[in-house]
Amino acid sequence: MALTNIRLGDYILKSTQNNKSLEYGIEFIAGVNTSGVFSPPKGNTDGVNLQPYKIVKNGAFVYNPTRLELGSIAYRTDGLCIVSHLYMVFYLTEEGKKIIDPMWLYMYFRRPEFCREVSFRNFGSQRPEFNLDDMSDIIIPLPNINVQKKYVSLYNAMIENQRCYERGLDDLKLVCDAYLDRLKHLNNKVAIGNYITQIDNRNLTNIQFKFKGLSMDNYFIDSIANSNGLNFSNYKVVKPNEYGAVLMKVGRDGRLTIAKNVSNENYLISPAYYTFKTHGINTDYFMANVNRAEFERRGWFSCDTSARGSLSWNEFMNLTIPEVSEHEQKNVSNLYKGLISRKEINEKLKSQIKDICPILIKGSLDEGRKTKEV
Questions:
Q1: Domain 4-142 is of which CATH architecture?
Q2: Distance of alpha carbon 53 from alpha carbon 16, whole angstroms
Q3: Do residues 80 and 57 make contact, with C-beta atoms less than 8 angstroms apart?
Q4: Per the CB 3.0–4.6 Å rule, which of 63, 67, 123, 351 could disulfide with 73?
């Protein structure tokens, strides 16, 4: 048996280096999402005190101690960033680097088995928080470094394939944005209220349709809210080809969230959200415009001064998009549909990469067991 059981804490070093000199500004802020990657902050960062933010350099592992069981851990390879002081940051020691490939360790963390172990260790806690002492106590069965590197190479090849595809996706988005910019400068603007009718269909018979939320990336997602015991009779029904919009936190998040129900099913959403349908406009052309960052900025500018920064329905209706011919709308529609299709494929590739981590780790462990000690 050539696997070596190690205590992780013997090979890692905690980092608490913070941004107390304010050397790094808001452009360096990053978060860690449940996909295990660093992402830009979703909320409004204006006025945030950046001094307690932790400095993260290449080679760092960063995780959210209250969401680790959901997979919120990432390995930094894209240069310096700063993260919330609530995050945990650690590096492999020099001794650790000799026996642990950091990408292999990252794959180990991305397994459902690891998430279940975190949940088990947190069981019974009033506010589950997996701190660095807990992380240090993790016991890892370790194959030799050469076996680790072999499986990391397979993983990196898949990552590079996905990133190549994503670069093509970025190029297509650039073309779509450039085309919309051209239309914006060559045509008059028209308020979206000319194409929208607000609807308010309530679930009066309390039918158990799928309970949905709205992603900040502008599509419907399964709601993460606890629905146990909820009376859905006041919730709004979104039928196929209808839209939902979140307008009450535009100022806080700096985002205007609009989603179209592209399924064949009815959805239920919060009664605090708006629902509407469009008429007299190509729906893909409409979505291509309202999903743009500059459209969201105009919504942010028009919101009120409340803590959340709500955008009223009337102000929403007064936001404008270019008024173009049906032919031009169709051209944008074709670009937008291609963009959405490629985004979906890219997300599937990412999901496949996540799913391959348990397979690669199992393969490395099985091979490690068969490898003779040197």
A1: Alpha-Beta Complex (3.90)
A2: 9
A3: yes
A4: 63
Q: What is the largest CA-CA distance in the chain?
A: 75
Q: Is the dihedral of CA 269, 274, 275, 280 positive or negative?
A: negative
Neighbour-count burial of 183, counting CB atoms closer than 10 A to its CB (0-12 exposed, 13-18 middle, 19+ buried): buried
Q: What is the pLDDT of residues 204-249, one digit of tens each?
A: 887 778 889 888 888 898 887 766 767 788 899 999 999 999 988 7
Task: Give the number of residues written for the chain.
Answer: 374
pTM above 0.90, yes or no: no
- Amino acid letter, 178: A
Contact 221, 213 (CB under 8 A): yes
Spatial CA neighbour of 204 closest among 231, 229, 233? 233
Question: Within 10 A of 277 (CB to CB), how many other CB atoms are there?
Answer: 16
Domain 188-323, classified CATH 3.90.220.20, yes or no: yes
* Beta bridge pairs of residue 275: 199, 244
Q: Which residues of 103-125 are buried (b: 16+ CB within 10 A; e: fewer)?
A: bbbbbbbbbeebbeebeebbeee
